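To whoever is covering the structure queue this week,

Two jobs came back overnight. Logging them here so there's a record in the thread.

Job A:
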Amino acid sequence: MPIYLDYNATTPLDPRVLEAMLPYLSGPYGNASSVHRYGRAARDAIEAARVQVAALAGAEVSELTFTSGATESNNLALKGLTETAQPTRVLYGATEHPAVLEAAESLIGHGWGVETIAVDRAGIVDWSAFEAQLARGPLRLVALMLANNETGVIQDTARAAKLVHDAGALLHVDAVQAGGKLAFGFRESGADLMSLSAHKLYGPKGVGALLVKSHVELAIQLHGGGQERGLRGGTENLAAIVGFGVAAELAIAEREQRIAHWTVLKARLEAGLRAMRGITIFGDGSPRLSNTVQFGVDGWEGEALLMALDRKGIAVSSGSACASGTGEPSHVLIGMGWPRDVAFSAIRVSLGITSTETEIDRFLVVLGDLHAQVAAA
């Protein structure tokens, strides 16, 4: 049977989520902006989902805006914040997702100074360098992800927030990979803005959220209709929002069970990897998500190994799905200071709620056979 080990790229739709969505795909069809009973029913469903998703991050309901996904949320945060201020500086982590780093780099053409925040070989912010960077003049925004999509490394955003706020700036946190995999809170994170996504936690694709604290002023990026309290125009994706809400509720209820399951599987996987020669586990020693392991394999390029595993019926990743096919090594690993040849060798295994020990054992056997073939060549 095929084995799927790429859950950080996307997760399957939980059958319970699909069941909740189906009535809104075939039954109630009102526009949530309409005032008649059909519209009111749609509005009630959206507001119920807002409560569920806000609870996932311990946020206030009034702080949550639904979007089309994390990419829109990240762009709304970075561009919306910078359009309400005179150009100064924006900082983003060297290991950020492409939806953040490309949005940040796009600001250069609008007069903003854009700088990366250095991380160490383990993927953790270089705090001394960061403090010195914050002190080098006026600053509007810092973007720092909570859990890295490739390595699973978890950043101390609360520590970063204190430094950022002391510098008179705001903090945006991409918490997309943390949702359902890590207990966290909007308040505790120190973030002023936070991005979430449904399809990373067994919800539908095409829906996300941006959490925004009340003191933050954002420039609207999508005009028209005044939906989402005027912050994001466009008729809401009702069924997807309902699905997001149920997925968030399930993630809260089952989080500890899921983490315990992944912790066992991850330990089994890493034990098998450590028993092989020429394996480098990235972020080893840092706090990491319980479902994520990225590692390099001597003698292989990650894309070639990915395809070799695919031919054996095993689906993994060589990094971010949003940056695949570029022909370049992982910018995350380059940002961590790994040499290009080591970064080129990387693949990522990310576990799901239905992953099994049998799948991990099968993966290790196939990987060991492929690795031995290269070593013998």
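Job B:
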Amino acid sequence: MPRTFRTWTPDSIPDQSGRLAVVTGANSGIGQVTAEALARRGAHVVLACRSAQRGQDALDRLLARVPGAHAEVRPLDLGDLASVRAFADGWDHDRLDLLVNNAGVAMVPFARTADGFESQFGINHLGTFALTGLMLPHLLASPDPRVVTVSSEGQRFARFDLDNLNAERRYGAMFVYLQSKRANLYFAAELQRRADAAGLRLRSMAVAPGLTRTNVLTGGANGNRGRLYGALTRLLLRIAFRPTPEGAKTSLYAATVPDLPGGAYVVPDGPLQLRGEPVLRGGRERAVRDTATARRLWELSETLTGVRFRLSDDAECPTQKSS
């Protein structure tokens, strides 16, 4: 039976001094709460944000709330593989201890990324896949590297179609979003399997935040869907969704609990994983056990992004193929 951590709160986070963390999408929502909580406990946090201005605004808020915090902002657009590579190429710290793959989009109108991928699959999965692979040498330079990838409780309802990942045949915003979140879980589990096979100390975790009030349904591409959509969505968020700090608990738990095993999948313990306290669900989740699909998705992701993971301690850089 999975264990429920009913007494755990962000105040339980152990001292993070000396730890170097990247949080993607840290300018708002769960990413902002995660970055601030890590900085409050002493970590040096890099806010990786698509918008330079929103990233700077988030950094200013963090420093105002946590005086003396060690934090910085760097540009990163997961919808543009050139931006992902520039972020990795510009890394000038001696290592990376924690990568929190938090950024994403949800149920947006159909669009393509800079590289021609359907936006939800391209940003939520392929951008995350490429970033992790390109940052892998810096993670392996850490004595205790950890990768946390934010999936969704909704991934359990995805109809995963490897032949339509890029919306080649049809597009349904909800269908494609849930599929991209299932891909996040496949990726996190497969990364752990490959790290274990290589004998590495890397720990890869996935989390589901539960229903959480963020701007993912109202900001970005969803901000242009009209006043009625905006009003109804904000009403739904206020009535049915829980506050953002509650949704950040699973990310923070996966990122900081010392003895958490690699391959863990942390979800809320309530009905349908919609709310509640962190609980481990890994062995009970179908996607975690589906190694064949995860392997095929990994191979496809390597082909689409041009990034191959070199899972060895002496990896100087991931192999990059021409797209």
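Note for Job B: The longest helix spans residues 173-197.

Please reply-all if you pick these up so we don't duplicate work.
Q.
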